Amino acid sequence: MASDRAKALAEKQRAEAKAVREAKKNSSNPEDWGMLRQLSATVKMVVEVDPRTKWLLIGAPVAIIVIAEVVGFIIGHWIQGLIWGVLLAASAFLLILGRLGKNSAYKRYKGQPGYAQVALMMLNKKKWTYTAAVEVDRQQDAVHRVVGPGGLILVGDGDANRVKQLLATARKRHDGISYDTEVIVISAGTGEGQMPVESVTKYIEKLPKKLTESQIQELEGRLKALDAMRGRLPLPKGPLPNMKANRRAVRGR
Questions:
Q1: DSSP per residue over the chain, as a string?
Q2: Is residue 203 domain-shared with residue 231, that is, in the same domain?
Q3: Which of these, 14, 227, 226, 250, lies nearest to 119 by C-alpha position?
Q4: Which of 109, 130, 161 is where one domain is finished?
Q5: Are 84 and 101 in contact (CB under 8 A)?
Q6: How does pLDDT run across 238-250, given as a tens digit for each residue?
Q7: N or C: which end of the chain has fewer CB within 10 A?
Q8: Starting at the edge strand that comes first in sequence, how are the strands of the sheet with 129-136 ordered?
């Protein structure tokens, strides 16, 4: 009897494990993907944006291996040269792919609704969290919210004039629950007085540390209550779902 129960339990666990594997296999979330699938997705995106990059991705590692092998033959250690060449080539490939991935993401989504999220998805997730579209207008301009060691940041995304009003509304709403935390406002875009989207990540991560971990958690709790009272706004149509799908691969981390 006990043996039958043990067999049934083992069978149930195997079925559950298989279901989890299948879910990850068919998932569109990169966090469920293996490293090879993430790299493949990044390479595909990079080459789609600029087909010429495939020659750099192929040529640089091959050149490194050839040079390392030549040096190995010269010093009489060709096997070690081959090993070091492969290791250096793999490192170079990942570094180049990470840089190309970021540049490709900016090019791919430039001018589309939600473009500023490209910069926000590249923030260090261990330190920063962001909430997309806490304010949205009919033209699909939006305000995104970032919380981290540098404080509470509102990032306007879209037409400079329209975003100015959106940011003012969002700032007024957040001032009520931020208490002694300054609400920092950024208007991202190509208009007059706006910060280029490509500069947003570096700007945020270089902000002086103002909040401890406990203060961040307390602030996030108040923000959650604020969102619950008002209700989440619908996300603007555009590239947002696709950007989420490529987030980890693009960040190169």
A1: -HHHHHHHHHHHHHHHHHHHHHHHHH---GGGS-HHHHHHHHHHHHHHH-TTHHHHHHHHHHHHHHHHHHHHHHHT-HHHHHHHHHHHHHHHHHHHHHHHHHHHHHHHHTTSTTTTHHHHTTS-TTT-EEEEEEEE-TT--EEEEEEETTEEEEEEES-HHHHHHHHHHHHHHHHHHHTTS-EEEEEESSSTTPBPHHHHHHHHHTSPP---HHHHHHHHHHHHHHHHHH-PPPPPSSSHHHHHHTHHHHHT-
A2: yes
A3: 250
A4: 109
A5: no
A6: 444 444 445 544 5
A7: N
A8: 129-136, 142-148, 151-157, 183-188
Same domain membership, residue 156 and residue 103: no
Residue 143 near residue 172, CB atoms below 8 Å = no
| Total-model pTM | 0.74
The 10s digit of each residue's pLDDT in 167-220 is 999 999 999 898 888 899 999 998 899 999 999 999 999 999 999 999 999 999
Positive or negative, the Cα torsion across 182, 188, 191, 196? positive
Domain that holds residue 39: 32-109
